[in-house]
C-alpha cells in the first residue's frame, strides 16, 4: 500500500548506472521510502530527495527522476491517489468520477431493464459493468504486482469481482465495483478539501502590488513580478504584497495570515513585514526582501505540504501492518472456502460466496487512510493558526511530551531587557560605568549588550572605541578600552576571576531577588560597578504555563542567568527552573530530562538551535523568522507562550482523531466479518462497510480542520 513499487522501480533504474555503489543505492532507497507518501512519488519529490543526498544533477539524480516521471503516477494506491491529468478539474470531472458515472449509468440501466426483461438478458449487462470497472483496477493491480507488491487493494478487489462473476453473482459484483469506485471518489474529494485548507492561505496574497518608481509614480504589477530590492507602496487597507522591510511610514499590521493572531501590531521603519498581512492605518513604503515564490506564506504552504507527505510512526506501523494484512486476508478467505464445506457442511456456492465477502471486508483501505487523513487535517488546522508543525512524526511527538523545557530570554520573556539600576563602585560615576560597559558591548549581539548600548545612547554617551573583544559564552565579554581590560559578566564569573564582591553582595542579592539580571563590570579585575537589567516576562507566559499544567505537562525554565534572578521569574510564572547553565549544560539538562520521557524544548530558534535539536521535539517561538522556520520541528509563529499549549492540544486532538478512525475502521470490519460468516449479510453490504468506513474515517479527519484551541 506504500510506494514500495515506485521506490523499487527508481532503485532498479539507478542500480544499472555504472559507478554507483550499493551503499549509495540503498541509502537512497531508504530515504525515498521514508519520504514518499502513498501516491506522491513524482519526478520532483524524487529529485528533491536525491538532491538532499548530495547527488544533485548527477547521472544518479537524473536517472532516478526519469524513472519516477516515467510512471510514478500510474502505480496504484487504491485510495486517495491523484492523477496529474485531474489537476485543476472539478471533482465531478476527474477520471475517478467518470468511472463512477459510467458504472452508475450501466448498473442503473441494468436494474431498470431487469424490471422488464428476463434475467438471462440483463445478466450480461451486469457482467459488462463489472468488466468495465475491472479494467482500470486490473491495470493498477498488474502494475503494482510488476513493481513487487502483488497483494494490493486492487488485487483484492479484482479477485472478489471476478470471483463473484464466476459464481453467478454478477449483479452483486457490479454493485461491489460501483461502490468501490464511489468510495475512491468520495475519498478523493475529501482529500482535496484537506489540501484546500492549506492552499487557502495562498488566497490571502493580494493580486496586485503597487511598485514605486524613483520619480514617485506607482505602477500596478502582480506580486510575482516584484524583485528583491524593489520598493512598493501599501496603502491603508491594502494587503502587504511581499515580505519586506518598512522604509517609511508607521502602521498597525494584522499579521493573522501568518501568525493566526489578529490583534494588530505596530510596525515602523526598519521593521520586517510579511506578505498577506493587512495594513490597517498608515501608508507604508516597503523594500522587497524576498521574491513571491520564496516569501513566508509560500514557504509555510510548502512546509505543510511536505509535512503532510512525511510519515508519522503510527502511519508506518499501519503500513507495515497492511503489508501482511492483505495476503493474510486472502489466505483466510481461501481457508473459509476450502474448509467450510467439510467442517461446517456449507455447500460450495455458500462457501465461495462468503469467502469472497470476507475478502472484501478484509480491504484495509480505511485503516491505511485513517492516519494520513487526520495528520493532513491537523497540520493544516495548525498552520492556519500560526502553529507550524513539520510532519506527522513531530505532531505525534508533541502531544506525548511529559516535560517542556523553555529557554528564558526571548521565549518566556520579551527578550528586550532594559537597564534599571546603575551601581558604580565607590569613587566611580554612573556615566563612567555605563560608558565603559557600552564600549565593550559594541560588538556583541547579546540581548544584555543591546540593553547596555541603548541605555548609554539614552544618556547621550558615545561608547569609547574598544579592541580585542572576546566573548566567553554564557559568562562574559571582555575588551581593551582606554588601555584597560574591561570585562562584563555574570557575578559568578567575577567571583571566579577572584574579585571580592563582599561590599556589594547585599545590593546584588536584592536586585536579583527582584528578578533582575545583574552584570558585574570589572576594570583590570577591580570592581567598577554593577548594572541591573530587567527583561519582562511575556504577557501570556503565566497563562501558557498554567494551560500546560492543565494538560498534564510539566514546564521547566532553562537559563544561563543566575539562580536568584531565574528563580524570581520562574516563581512568578509558576514553573521549575534550572539556572546558571552554560550552553553545554543546557544540552546535558535536556538529555537528563529525556531519561524520564519525551521532552520538548522551546526556544527562539536563534542561539538555541543545538538545544532544540537535542530535545525529542524542538519548538521555535517567534514571528516567522527564517531560523525559527528552518531549525525546529515545529514553530509557534505568534510570539505567544500559550501557542505551545495549543500545539500540545492540537497534537492530542489529532491523535484522538486517529484513534477514533482506527476504532471505526476495525470495529465496522469486525462487525461485518461476523455477520458475513453467519450468513446475515452478503457481498454488497461487505463492500458498503468498507467504503462506508473509508468515507467515515475521512470525514472524521476533516472535522480537525475546524479545530480551535480551547485552553482551560
Ligand atoms: N554580552 C554579555 N554582556 C554581559 N553579560 C553577559 C554577556 N554574555 C553573557 N553574559 C553573562 O552570562 C550570563 C549567561 O548568559 P547566557 O547568554 O548563557 O544566558 P542568557 O541568554 O542571558 O539567558 P537564557 O539562557 O535564559 O536565554 C548572563 O546572564 C550574563 O551575566
Ligand atoms: Zn477498501
Number of helices: 26
Distance between the termini: 41 Å
Under CATH, the topology of the domain at 387-413 and 537-637 can be stated as: Rossmann fold
Broad structural category? alpha+beta
Q: Which homologous superfamily in CATH is the superfamily of the domain at 387-413 and 537-637?
A: HAD superfamily/HAD-like
Q: Tell me about the biggest sheet?
A: 7 strands, mixed
For the largest sheet, list the strands in their spatial order.
10-22-21-20-11-18-19
Morphology call: elongated
Strand content: 5-15%
Average pLDDT confidence is 81
CATH class of the domain at 387-413 and 537-637: Alpha Beta
Enzyme class: translocase
Domain HMA: 1-58
Biased composition (Basic and acidic residues): 70-82
EC number: 7.2.2.12
Topology diagram in text:
Layout: H1 4-15, H2 22-35, H3 43-52, H4 59-71, H5 95-116, H6 119-146, H7 153-166, H8 170-199, E1 209-212, E2 218-221, E3 231-234, E4 244-248, E5 251-254, H9 256-259, E6 265-267, E7 272-273, E8 278-279, E9 284-288, H10 296-309, H11 313-344, H12 348-361, H13 365-383, E10 387-389, H14 392-400, E11 403-407, H15 408-412, E12 418-424, H16 430-441, H17 447-458, E13 466-472, E14 476-481, E15 484-489, H18 491-496, H19 505-513, E16 517-523, E17 526-534, H20 541-550, E18 554-558, H21 563-573, E19 576-578, H22 583-595, E20 599-603, H23 609-614, E21 617-621, H24 626-631, E22 634-636, H25 642-677, H26 683-703
Parallel strand pairs: 11-18, 11-20, 18-19, 20-21, 21-22
Antiparallel strand pairs: 1-2, 1-3, 3-9, 4-7, 4-9, 5-6, 5-8, 10-22, 12-17, 13-14, 14-15, 15-16, 16-17
Helix pairs in contact: 1-2, 1-4, 2-3, 3-4, 5-6, 5-8, 6-7, 6-8, 7-8, 7-12, 8-13, 8-26, 10-13, 11-12, 11-13, 12-25, 12-26, 13-25, 13-26, 14-25, 16-17, 19-21, 20-25, 25-26
The chain binds adenosine-5'-triphosphate and zinc ion (ZN).
